[in-house]
User: Which sequence fits this backbone?
């Protein structure tokens, strides 16, 4: 069975794929702003190039966030933004609620992670099943 | 024996990279840099596997083992960070993770075709050269091709 991928390595590759996919999903999720605590004044908004105008930047005081909700482009510069961490609502000027949404890239990355993990498990198992070389056992 | 003969592993890697690229573009049609980083990672995996699987490590041939797997993941991660710090920057966690994911997919693609993985130097050189070619295609997709596609596809001008 020298050509077999050991079960441990097979599981290791799948876990590595899951970890990489988890980081991708987390980064995409962070673009909803939901995980962040924000308390400051909106200084600038912008667009990330090469993103088909789907990814914006929001600079609050000295911190710049990437945001995948295009509605934030409508927030007026100079407004005070407050939000608690893990809350899906931020307040503009302390009173007007702005509901945050999870972007569709989160679900796309989730789909790709499931596909990649399935492919990793199925394709690395192929060698194990066919590993017995008749010439070596005779 | 592969129908592609001595180019079996290289053909395997190229076809796998093309399939991955098409799937990612289908899922993220407006984020071509994701596909670019993933296929660059696949190409880097080809280079690292071609580089690391030589010698008389295994008298019966070769397969992916922990040494090769860790070399691929480590090599691709370092290359991804180094690339983002220099040529393809600024440093972006998602770019590096996409490249590492590509490296893992390259590992999976090559392991799925373990029976055609080369053990002699010429075959390993072919695999590494194919990997370098795929990295080049990823780079082209990241910059010139993306700019071209942006103008004719995204904006229709």
Assistant:
């Amino acid at each position: 069975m020298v050509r077999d991928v050991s079960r441990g390595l097979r599981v290791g590759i799948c876990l590595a794929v899951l970890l990489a996919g988890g980081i991708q999903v987390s980064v995409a999720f962070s673009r909803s702003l939901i995980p962040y605590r924000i308390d400051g004044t909106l200084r600038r908004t912008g667009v990330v190039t090469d993103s088909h105008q789907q990814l914006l930047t929001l600079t609050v005081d000295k911190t710049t966030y990437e945001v995948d909700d295009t509605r934030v482009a409508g927030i007026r510069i100079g407004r005070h933004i407050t939000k608690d961490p893990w809350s899906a609502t931020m307040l503009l000027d302390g009173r007007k609620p702005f509901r945050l949404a999870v972007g569709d890239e989160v679900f796309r990355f989730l789909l790709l992670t499931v596909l990649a993990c399935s492919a990793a498990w199925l394709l690395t198992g192929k060698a194990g099943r066919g590993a017995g070389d008749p010439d070596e056992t005779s | 024996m592969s129908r592609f003969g001595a180019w079996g592993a290289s053909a395997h890697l190229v076809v796998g990279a093309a399939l991955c690229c098409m799937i990612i573009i289908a899922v993220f049609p407006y984020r071509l840099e994701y596909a670019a980083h993933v296929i660059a990672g696949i190409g880097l995996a080809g280079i690292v596997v071609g580089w690391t699987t030589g010698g008389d490590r295994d008298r019966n041939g070769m397969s992916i083992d922990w040494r090769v797997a860790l070399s691929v993941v480590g090599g691709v991660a370092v290359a991804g960070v180094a690339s983002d710090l220099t040529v393809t920057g600024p440093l972006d966690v998602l770019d590096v993770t996409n490249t590492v994911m590509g490296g893992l997919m390259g590992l999976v693609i090559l392991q799925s075709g373990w029976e055609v993985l080369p053990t002699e130097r010429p075959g390993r050189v072919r695999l590494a050269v194919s990997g370098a070619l795929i990295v080049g295609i990823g780079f082209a997709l990241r910059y010139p091709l993306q700019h071209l596609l942006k103008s004719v596809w995204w904006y229709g001008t």
